[in-house]
């Protein structure tokens, strides 16, 4: 069993892949082995999380997720705890594994109850796992979810918090908010994106002794996605100079939005770019930023884009429209953010220029938030959020480039790549300008020589990590964030 600490990368498997792995493992192991291992892992983690807990409410659903709860109850009873089990199944209707665990719990003397205990020290949510269907829980299950969420005690979810969709991170309106989740056999993508992180709390993995990649099967299963790990430390050879770390041109900052371009430029500078030029679309009112004298202001037309990484769109307004044909045609590498995305969403000629970039091997990164992604796909933000992995993958295929879909559990997709979910970051990033900082940081990584997908993955991770390390009690501002980025 391991706690997922976000430093090492992890393979994620959707329900179909997990089921395939489960079947292969079951065929190779004696009956009931997997559930026995799952129940033991749940009981062990419960004990580790709440060593002094006495009364433990175990809420069990009708399927094998409930079976894991029944199996865990048997161990907790034997270890001198007082598990109280409420079960929505019955011996006649339960699947074989759950029925076997029911008999074992009965024999161990576990207390079965029609109603949850009045008081408890820990709750185990074993209502629904990967067999959960996308329908609103009702009746007693709904009542129990409300009670679980109202309790002040720790909640350990078995496999998934009930109501969370394993593949997408979407939730039913009524769903369990856990403090800990023990994912079984595999880690699922839905634990880490959309509502997953809020629903799951801290995530643990019990692989049940099944090697994930070989899975006892002939064919190793390809991961559905990866959870990103920490990027390798960047090393700067002594024999390097500013040209080794690339030139960046930030193009944006229409009147009233100059700050967005300056934030992107500041981020690129502090993330280690060799030289940072700023082509403002403000009509030439600003020619120096005295707090950042390293930045070089130039008319956009004077920038030699073919030798530069262009970060465009930050505060670009409508003025970015006129610049995009040249940027998309000429820039060596480009990060397309904010207003540039909105302009491209409405212009098929620009879309053609965008997709043509991949044919000449020019690096391109699109950084939409869900509404911008929806505009590019011609759908709604709600539909994007309902399946973020699918939406991000579609955008990458359609526009032949790397796509960063922002939001909780930011995603990266690119043609021919397994998508990556970023584990770092928190709601402190929900403040104006942090997206501009991210665009500048991705630009710095591109200018430093990484390919588009790797640049996006590393930048998103580091941007989130800076927010995770923010001093408690101090508000996060985009300007301060841009100065704290790692080289
Ligand atoms: N079979 C095995 O070998 C293993 C199964 N495992 C456990 O089994 C789980 C999967 O078991 P199942 O496939 O039985 O699925 P679940 O137990 O997750 O759920 C299926 C049951 O819940 C009902 N249900 C689904 N959605 C509902 C909703 N919205 N409202 C009310 N009822 C709903 C279904 O009708 C069915 O009875 C895993 O998540 C894991 O916890 C683990 O023990 C590992 C081994
Ligand atoms: K559960």
Automatic annotation (TrEMBL):
Keyword presence, Nucleotide-binding: yes
Keyword set, alphabetical order: ATP-binding, Isomerase, Lyase, Metal-binding, Multifunctional enzyme, NAD, NADP, Nucleotide-binding, Potassium
Listed EC numbers: 4.2.1.136, 5.1.99.6
Pfam families: Carb_kinase, YjeF_N
Entry's Gene Ontology molecular function annotations: ADP-dependent NAD(P)H-hydrate dehydratase activity; ATP binding; metal ion binding; NAD(P)HX epimerase activity
Binding residue positions for (6S)-NADPHX: 64-68, 159, 260, 315, 369, 436
Residues that, per the record, bind K(+): 65, 125, 162
Cofactor(s) in the UniProt record: Mg(2+); K(+)
BP GO terms, sorted: metabolite repair; nicotinamide nucleotide metabolic process
Domain YjeF N-terminal: 18-216
Domain YjeF C-terminal: 225-487
Family to which this protein belongs: Belongs to the NnrE/AIBP family.
NCBIfam families according to UniProt: yjeF_cterm, yjeF_nterm
Function: Bifunctional enzyme that catalyzes the epimerization of the S- and R-forms of NAD(P)HX and the dehydration of the S-form of NAD(P)HX at the expense of ADP, which is converted to AMP. This allows the repair of both epimers of NAD(P)HX, a damaged form of NAD(P)H that is a result of enzymatic or heat-dependent hydration. Catalyzes the dehydration of the S-form of NAD(P)HX at the expense of ADP, which is converted to AMP. Together with NAD(P)HX epimerase, which catalyzes the epimerization of the S- and R-forms, the enzyme allows the repair of both epimers of NAD(P)HX, a damaged form of NAD(P)H that is a result of enzymatic or heat-dependent hydration.
Name of this chain's protein: Bifunctional NAD(P)H-hydrate repair enzyme
Organism: Albidiferax ferrireducens (strain ATCC BAA-621 / DSM 15236 / T118) (Rhodoferax ferrireducens)
Lineage start: Bacteria, Pseudomonadati, Pseudomonadota, Betaproteobacteria, Burkholderiales
Gene for this chain: nnrE
């Amino acid at each position: 069993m391991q706690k997922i600490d976000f430093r090492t990368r992890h393979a994620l498997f959707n329900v179909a892949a997990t089921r395939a792995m489960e079947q292969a493992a079951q065929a190779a192991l004696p009956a009931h082995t997997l559930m026995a291992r799952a129940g033991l892992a749940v009981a062990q983690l419960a004990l580790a999380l709440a060593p002094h807990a006495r009364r433990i409410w175990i809420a069990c659903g009708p399927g094998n997720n409930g079976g894991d709860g029944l199996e865990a109850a048997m161990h907790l009873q034997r270890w001198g705890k007082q598990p109280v089990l409420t079960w929505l199944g019955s011996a006649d209707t339960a699947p074989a594994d759950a029925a076997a665990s029911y008999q074992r719990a009965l024999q161990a003397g576990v207390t079965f109850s029609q109603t949850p205990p009045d008081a408890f020290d820990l709750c185990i949510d074993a209502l629904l796992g990967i067999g959960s269907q996308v329908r609103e829980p009702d009746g007693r299950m709904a009542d129990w979810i409300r009670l679980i969420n109202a309790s002040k005690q720790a909640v350990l979810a078995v496999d998934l918090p009930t109501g969370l969709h394993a593949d997408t991170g979407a939730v039913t309106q009524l769903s369990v908010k856990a403090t800990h989740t023990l994912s079984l056999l595999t880690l699922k993508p839905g634990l880490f994106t959309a509502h997953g992180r809020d629903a799951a709390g801290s995530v643990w993995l019990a692989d049940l002794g099944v090697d994930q990649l070989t899975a006892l099967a002939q064919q190793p299963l390809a991961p559905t996605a990866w959870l990103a790990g920490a990027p390798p430390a960047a090393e700067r050879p002594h024999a390097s100079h500013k040209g080794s770390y690339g030139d960046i041109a930030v193009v944006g900052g229409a009147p009233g939005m100059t700050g967005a371009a300056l934030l992107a430029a500041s981020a690129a500078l502090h993330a280690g770019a060799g030289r940072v030029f700023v082509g403002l679309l403000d009509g030439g009112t600003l020619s120096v930023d005295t707090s950042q004298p390293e930045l070089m202001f130039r008319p956009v037309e004077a920038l030699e884009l073919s030798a530069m990484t262009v970060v465009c769109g930050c505060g670009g307004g409508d003025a970015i429209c006129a610049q995009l044909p040249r940027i998309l045609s000429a820039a060596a590498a480009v990060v397309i953010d904010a207003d540039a995305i909105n302009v491209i969403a409405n212009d098929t000629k620009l879309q053609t220029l965008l997709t043509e970039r991949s044919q000449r091997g020019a690096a391109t990164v699109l950084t939409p938030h869900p509404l911008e992604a929806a505009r590019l796909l011609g759908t709604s933000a709600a539909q994007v959020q309902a399946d973020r992995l699918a939406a991000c993958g579609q955008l990458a295929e359609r526009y032949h480039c790397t796509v960063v879909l922002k939001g909780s559990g930011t995603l990266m997709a690119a043609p021919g790549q397994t998508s990556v979910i970023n584990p770092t970051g928190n709601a402190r990033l929900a403040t104006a300008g942090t997206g501009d900082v991210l665009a500048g940081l991705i630009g710095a990584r591109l200018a430093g020589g990484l390919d588009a997908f790797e640049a996006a993955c590393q930048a998103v991770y580091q941007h989130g990590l800076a927010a995770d390390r923010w001093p408690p009690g101090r508000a996060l501002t985009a300007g301060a964030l841009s100065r704290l980025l790692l080289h």
